[in-house]
Structures are given as structure tokens and as C-alpha cells.
Description:
alpha/beta
Amino acid sequence: MRVITGSAKGRKLKELQGRETRPTTDRVKEGIFNIIQFDIEGRRVLDLFAGTGQLGIECLSRGADRCTFVDLRKEAAALIRENLTWCALQERAQVIQGDYLAYLTRCGEKFDLILLDPPYGSGLLEKALESIAAIDILSENGIMVCESAVEQVLPELKSPYTRGKDYRYGKIKLTVYRRDAD
């Protein structure tokens, strides 16, 4: 797992051991950043279900203003901090070790870009999408990118949220949601 481009280009990130974390493959990560490449610089990013932090770190490396990383597991939060320090990006990052729903309901801030990659088949993605739309923490013209199994059907969200295109990478699907301007 390496940072693709930007200030931390080529830095190898540490991974969590075991099967609880499924890092995004290089092919899918390249797909994500091809989709959002013009929507990163200067933006506020939320990497929910952050795991190793690789997606948020890639955003920071490419010029995102700030990134908040949220993961339930203590060892994941510690690893994200370690990877941020290794990439010299810790000054523009906040790492939250805790439940995603508790964080969403109390965060009180809006994000320009939200990355969602929870464990497949857990139901967490659908719950997170509905919570984000209900709490309305995506800024006007903001983007959410969701990673899921290709067979998973994701919900339509109420206006001003619109579900965009699906992108397929073998058994993995990326789905893009946008928040329209009021």
C-alpha cells in the first residue's frame, strides 16, 4: 500500500494484521482518485471507517485542507496516526477512535468530500449514508464516494442528495453521491 501521488508520493503505509481490515486495492484506489481528482485540493475530507487511513492520507497528499479519520478500533486509530506521522501529514489531520454514528451525530461540521468504506455486507454503509443525509454534513456540491461489493444495492437519498454513477472494478463497486446546492 503506497501513496500514489502528491507530497507523500511513494510512501509505503503500514497495514493492520488480520482479516478485520480489507485495504482498498490499488486498482480501486486509482479509480476513486480518477473520479474525484479535481475535488480534493483545499477541501475538508471525512474518511469514515478509515482502517489504515490510506484514502484520507491520499487526499491530504494531494492537497486536501484537512481530513478527519474515524474508526472504531483502537489499533486502527493508532496505525492511522503512525501512517500520518510517517507521511508528515499529521498537522492537517484529526483521528477519532470511536463509533461512526456517535461521531456523525455530534461532529457539528460539514465536509466537502466523504469517503465510505465499511466492512462489506455489514449494513453499516446504508446506515451511514442515511445518517449523513439526515444530519446533512456534506457541504453544497460535496461528494460522497462509497465502496461496496458489486451486488450490493445502495439507497436513493432524499433531496438535495443525488445518487450518481456506479463504477465497477471486478467484484468491487464505487458509487458516487452528490449534494446539490440549496
